[in-house]
Amino acid sequence: KKYYDAYIPLNLRRRVSFAGYVSPEDLPRYYTSADVYCSPATGSESFGIVLLEAMASGVPIVASNIEGYRNVMTDGKEGLFCRPRDPRSIADAVIALTKDPERRGVMGVHGRATAQRYDWTTVTKQIEEVYTQVVS
C-alpha cells in the first residue's frame, strides 16, 4: 500500500483507496459503486471475465485493447479500448466517460446485455448442443 500511495498526489490521497483482496461475494458491490471500471491489463488475458463481471453490474469499461478483451467487448459499445501500456490513452478514455453520464448509462445497458450472453445457463445450452452434434 505504501508503495502505491507514493504515486498518488497528496491532494488526491483522501479520494483514493486500495482495498486489497475483495471476496467474490463483495465484488458486485464494488462494481456497482463505480462510475467506470478500468482494466489496464498488458496482455496474457485469455478471456475478459473481469470485464463481464463489471458489465453484469451495468458499469461501462475502459480496458486495454488486447486480444482476450476484444473477445468480449466492442469498442464504443460496452466501453472504450485504450492502448496497452499507455497511461495517457487510459486517462483520456476514463476522463471522456466521467464527463458523459448519458454515454456511461448507454454503455452500461449494452454491457448488461453482453454479459447475459455469457450466463452459465446460456453457455451450458450451447455446450450441450455441441456435444449433441458430436455424438450424432
**Rg, alpha carbons:** 17 Å
| Portion in beta strands | 5-15%
Helix share, percent: 40-55%
Please state the structural category.
mainly alpha
Beta strands, count? 3
Reading the helices and strands in chain order gives: HHEHEHEHHH
Low-pLDDT ranges = none
Largest sheet: 3 strands, parallel
Mean pLDDT: 93
- N/C terminus separation: 56 Å
Net shape: elongated
Strand line-up in the sheet with most strands: 1-2-3
Helix run count: 7
Notable characteristics:
136 residues; mainly alpha; three-stranded parallel beta sheet; single chain
Tell me about this structure.
By secondary structure, the chain is mainly alpha-helical. Helices cover 49% and strands 8% of the residues. It is built from 7 helices and 3 strands, in the order H-H-E-H-E-H-E-H-H-H. The protein has helices spanning 2-5, 27-32, 49-56, 67-70, 87-98, 101-116, 120-135; strands at residues 37-39, 61-64, 79-82. A 3-stranded parallel beta sheet has the order 1-2-3, with helices on both faces. Helix 3 (49-56) crosses helix 6. The longest helix is centred in the last third of the chain and has 16 residues, at 101-116. It is elongated. It starts with a helix and ends with a helix. The model has no long low-confidence stretch (mean pLDDT 93).
